[in-house]
Amino acid sequence: MTSPEATTQEAPSLFDQAMERYQQGTAPAELIDSFLAITEQAPGQSAGWTCLAWLQLLDDQPQAALRSAKTAVRLNPQDPQARINLSLAMLETGAKGVREHIEIVQRVMAMAPEMAEELQESIADGLQRKPGWKAMDKVKAWLAG
C-alpha cells in the first residue's frame, strides 16, 4: 500500500519521464499512451492534457487532439500553449472560432515576453517534428502578425 504522498509523486514522475523521452526525440505515437495514463491519473491537471493534445496533433489525430485541447483549455484558460493546440486542432478539423483563441494567445505574448519565447520554441519544435504542417504555418503567421 502506498501513502498519499507517494501516489501524488507518481503522476509528476511519470509526466517528467514522458517529457524527458519527448525531449530525447521519442516519436509522438510512442508517447501517447504515457500521456493517456497521466491524464487518467490526474484528470484535473491541464499540463497532461496539453501535452496529450500536442502529441495527438503531431501524430495526425486531430479529432482526439480537439477533445484533449478543449479539456486543457477548460482546466486552464490562461495557458497559451493549450490555446495554440486547440487552434491547431480546430484548423485541422474545420471547426469555427479559431480567431478568439489566437487573439488570447497574442495578448498573453504581448504581456509576458518570456512566455512568447517559449511559444516560439514550441512552434519551431512542431515544425521540425512535422515539416510542412500547414495549420502550424497559419498559426505562426497569425501570431507574428
The residue-averaged pLDDT reads 92
Task: Describe the largest sheet.
Answer: none
The shape, in one word, is: globular
Question: How would you spell out the order of helices and strands?
Answer: HHHHHHHH
- Give the class-level CATH name: Mainly Alpha
Range of strand content: under 5%
Write down the Rg.
15 Å
Give the CATH superfamily.
Tetratricopeptide repeat domain
CATH architecture heading: Alpha Horseshoe
Low-confidence region ranges = 1-8
Derived from helix and strand composition plus strand pairing, the structural class reads mainly alpha
Describe the overall structure.
- The protein has helices at 4-23, 28-41, 46-58, 62-75, 80-93, 98-111, 113-129, 134-144.
- The protein is mainly α.
- It has a single domain (4-144), classed as Alpha Horseshoe (Serine Threonine Protein Phosphatase 5, Tetratricopeptide repeat), CATH 1.25.40.
- The longest helix has 20 residues, at 4-23.
